[in-house]
Amino acid sequence: MAEHFAKNSSMDNSSSVPGRVSSGGAGRADRSFPVLAAKLIAKPDDQWFKEWAECRAIIGRLDSILVDLRKTGFAFITALLTASAFLSLLGVPGQNGIATPIQARGVAFMAIMILIAALFAVDSYYEVLLSAAVERALDLEAKSDPPVRVTKYLSINASNTLSTWVLVGLYLILLLTACALGILAVASATTKDGNFAWSWNPWVEYVAGVGLILGVAMIRYWTFIASKTDFHKIKMNRQWPGGEGPMEKGAN
To answer: Which candidate, 65, 36, 38, places its Cα nearest to that of 53?
Structure first.
């Protein structure tokens, strides 16, 4: 009995070691955090620390999802643009020795533009979720004593680089590139002597119309979620202790 009690006591003590927070679900691995962070923030069994640690874990997961999404999405779309431009603009002949029809060229670039808009919508969704976790972590850090400013410092640096605006600009540039290549593909032709010839046809308007509609839709959607969530900026009315400003790295 004494040995059994000693084993149980050692297990209980190990579960309360600073720096490890149990995930609380069967079959889920514990999430480990630095021991120093646990000592600075609060006791491991404190509800404040558990919520802050969970926010940081969610931020890490969502950030990984966004990195993988953007890396895979941009690489895939770039490959599609390159292949479509090669087949369309260079006039690579098909099985019958005839170049790709104008309709096929236009549909290919329209599909790519739709994929860009879909990728932007999914990216914005995860960006909003990430912003919510960041905001809650900032709310908790504003009440921490001693001060903890991990999320605040990261948010300030991200805000100063205008990363959210740059990302929207990159998606719009990618859409504009696909639209321009699509117009060039359906409106261009190569003469028998190898010279470039411009031939205006209804498919130019179709490709340009799809690009314009998707571009406006992307801007309006981003404006809508930004007005509802303010995910693109830091709250300036959050109260920080000691007169510390919301954009100030002043905690010691």
So the answer is: 38
Domain assignments of the chain as residue spans, ordered by start? 42-242
Neighbours of 224 (CB within 10 A): 11
Place of tokens 């900032």: 138
Q: How far apart are CA 60 and CA 224, in angstroms?
A: 26
Q: How many angstroms separate the CA atoms of 12 and 14, rounded?
A: 5
Angle at 209 (CA atoms; ends 205, 213), nearest 5 degrees:
180
The CA distance from 58 to 48, in Å, is 15
Q: Per residue in 19-43, is it b (16+ CB within 10 Å) or e — as a string?
A: ebbeeeeeeeeeeebeeebbeebbe
pLDDT, tens only, 9-32: 444 444 333 333 333 444 433 444
In whole angstroms, give the CA distance from residue 60 to residue 38: 17
**DSSP labels for 159-181?**
HHTTHHHHHHHHHHHHHHHHHHH
Q: pLDDT tens across 224-243, in order? A: 999 998 888 888 888 887 77
Looking at residue 231, the DSSP 8-state letter turns out to be T
The Cα-based distances of 176 to 105, 106, 170 in angstroms read 16, 15, 10
Q: Are 70 and 53 in contact (CB under 8 A)?
A: no
Q: In sequence order, which ranges of 34-187 are alpha helices (DSSP H)? A: 35-41, 47-89, 102-141, 150-160, 163-187
CA dihedral of residues 171, 173, 178, 184 (deg, nearest 10): 170
Which residues share a beta bridge with 188? 198
